[in-house]
Amino acid sequence: MITAQLPQAVFFCLTKMNDPQQTSLFNNEEFSPSDSGESTNWEKMSHDPNVPIPPGTYRNLEELTHHCHHCQRCDLAKTRTQVVVSRGSPHADVMIIGEAPGQSEDEQGLPFVGKSGQLLDKILASVELSLEEDVYISNMVKCRPPDNRTPIAKEIAACKSYLLEQIALVDPKIILFTGATALKGLTGEKKGITKIRGQWLQWQGRWAMAIFHPAYLLRNPSREKGKPKWLMWQDIQAVRNKLDQLREEEKTS
Ligand code: SF4
Q1: Does domain 8-252 have CATH number 3.40.470.10?
Q2: What would you report as the CA-atom Rg of the chain, rounded to the nearest whole angstrom?
Q3: pLDDT tens across 192-250, in order?
Q4: pTM of this structure
């Protein structure tokens, strides 16, 4: 196992989201979180992207998904066909976070369903990780950027609260960032993906690793030792081993 030298920003994020100091950053008087047991009043949710959605807003992923489908917090709402929230198990131990939906995802309303999604499914299946039980997939932003451009910082900031809520609700043991945008968008890590991939990080009390985006593997099909596909094979085996280890530790604790 290789432990990365993390930037300070990542270490400072090791606190859970129920940290009172962090929670106070999300105070929003116009909205009462739904932990009262009453159904959420969607009308009261802010469409202002500068007003983060308070942690604990959603009692479950269905509520979150419902709200995302009505979201107008950034301009990507104007050009999307469908909002793309997630696929996979809501009780997954592994959560994969990508960048943004592409054309196939926008059409089907599901993340990672195009060619790169099919490759990702094969990679997961190669180490017996299933979307029915082990894996939950989502993106930094839930709506497709026009022409598949990289989402801009404003869009990532507007959508980030949803992702933080998804992480809290799914509560995965391991988070995988596919590509640099997802890694930087959540952790602030600015190192290139080729430098940091395959290294275990600790982020918000969870094990995390950056891996190559499957689209990058499609552009680099060689399986030779040291090439991206070979490196991905090393990384996914490391993920499988870490998951087995964490599950074993949980059983014996
Ligand atoms: S990308 Fe996110 S914040 Fe922007 S409209 Fe879609 S769901 Fe809302």
Answers
A1: yes
A2: 18
A3: 999 999 999 999 999 999 999 999 999 999 999 999 999 999 999 999 999 999 999 99
A4: 0.84
